[in-house]
Amino acid sequence: MRTAYTSDQIRAAEAALMATLPEGTLMERAATGLAVVCARMLGGVYGSRVVLLVGGGDNGGDTLYAGARLAARGAGVDAIIAGRRVHEAGLAALRRAGGRVTGLPGGEAATSATTPNGRPVAGSLPGAPGDGVTDDDAVVGGTVRDLIGAADLIVDGMLGIGGTGALREPYATLARLAGDAPGEVVAVDLPSGVDASSGQVEGAAVRADATVTFGAWKIGLLVDPGAGHAGRTELVDIGLGPHLPEPDAVALTDADVVALLPRPGASSDKYRRGVVGIAAGSEHYTGAAVLAVGGALRAGVGMVRYAGSAEPVAQVRAHWPEAVITTLAPGEGVEEVGRVQAWVLGPGLGTGDEARAIARSVLAEDVPVLVDADALTLVAQERSLLRRDAPVLITPHAGELSRLTGVPRELIEARSLENVRRAAAELEVTVLLKGSTTLVAREGRPVRINPTGSPWLATGGTGDVLAGVAGALLAAGLSGYDAASCAAYLHGIAGRRGPLAASDVAEALPETVRSLVNGLRQGRSPAKLDR
Ligand SMILES: NC(=O)C1=CN([C@@H]2O[C@H](COP(=O)(O)OP(=O)(O)OC[C@H]3O[C@@H](n4cnc5c(N)ncnc54)[C@H](O)[C@@H]3O)[C@@H](O)[C@H]2O)[C@@H](O)CC1
Ligand SMILES: [K+]
Known about the structure:
The structure is a single chain. By secondary structure, the protein is of the alpha/beta class. It has two domains: 2-250, Rossmann fold (3-Layer(aba) Sandwich); 254-260 and 273-530, UDP-N-acetylmuramoyl-L-alanine:D-glutamate ligase. It is built from 22 helices and 19 strands. The chain has a twelve-stranded mixed β-sheet with strand order 8-1-10-19-18-17-16-15-14-11-12-13, with helices on both faces. A seven-stranded parallel β-sheet has the order 4-3-2-5-6-7-9, sandwiched between helices. β2 (49-54), α3 (58-72) and β3 form a beta-alpha-beta unit. α12 (287-298) packs parallel to α21 (502-521). It is elongated and about 80 Å long. Ligand NAX binds next to α1, α2 and α3.
């Protein structure tokens, strides 16, 4: 399990640890770990060209010390001093190791960046702009632009957990130049411009090929859009572990998911493995029923009972001879369908009277219910339906959650973590919030951040498959919280190789589960290696 923290939690843990250690120890550990990753990214250090983007805080300090190590091993290291201040001991170390230092033209950054002697950064002013002067040059100077453009490795040490709000200049321009440059970009602790505690990005932010983070995962490295800026992530242990609090957010790993997934034993039969009921599809929307049933079957359920009207019944029958089918007359509920251990309610169901009758009857059953899609619209109109003794798992995207909670969609998207947590508490249900990062929340438990999503999944019908998978796991006896987070994890891996249609995701599920289980048995993680 990856545990993730806000910047305040990290700071508190660092303070507690620092109190037990000689000054500078943590920065030393951080810089050592960073230099190791930089060296690996460079392949050969000697003769390589490294540019450090150095902010005014300790993030810049880490970067200068790591740069000093690379310079000592023969890299050509240029530090661009971008902050109003500079970590002086780090700067001195870099100079001693033979690194070069460049300031920025004009503005506070250049006039107040100082050397260890307190003088303005020397040798810093860029050459007079000549041909090919750009707007960027006005902010950072042509010399800096050229240095960044020629670097093999650009180290983003502008902002770490001290960053707040949108990147100010000259950081924003430097972030953009780094993004346009052909060299690899490594972010120190987290990409500058990404909010450590939420993953929010307001304005420009560094897009890193890799991020080396210190002590513990920051939530912003796991939640989009921040996660999308971080590239490959590596955690450097600086000894923070014993000082960290209980996490508010976690991400499952392959091993966690394999441990949670039900596997049939010698005494299993289809009933013990779990029977999932699926109330989905309508005369107009037949595909949702086919996909939800497919997701459930491919996830390895004991049995699927499908209940719906004539048209989707015909489609489900044609696609899935494995499903046991009940045709519902208009207005009829699911009372006579037979025993099920959990229901999936809603994909393609419609929102008219017939759909409402089905929804009421499903929610009146004394088993866990997954409420998705059209059923979310129905329960938004009739909130009392959610008040029941058996567990409820809802699987909305931001728009659907907005209808249920009244919180504007944009706000849910911008502050997804906070809003999913609040929705779970207020509605007293488990919430799986779909988005570029899928989140699963249940009151009293850390929010689970799904690490396996893929943009290829943004295609019609994938949500129906996900509902089927999660329903199958609910029927097998997992809690809503575990069923939702395992389903999102598997679905994300099954959908990572595009282009794909929703039915391809369902089809990829058995192989996804097999490769997770086999990967762990062989001591490797195929899912992670391929991502
Ligand atoms: N505290 C510790 O024990 C350790 C900290 N370490 C490093 O220290 C970092 C945190 O250092 P700091 O607290 O100095 O903070 P940062 O280095 O993240 O920088 C904070 C400074 O940036 C400026 N700033 C904030 N938001 C800005 C924005 N949007 N645009 C432009 N400037 C902005 C502020 O003026 C603030 O002073 C960590 O991320 C990590 O890299 C590591 O050395 C490990 C140990
Ligand atoms: K950074």
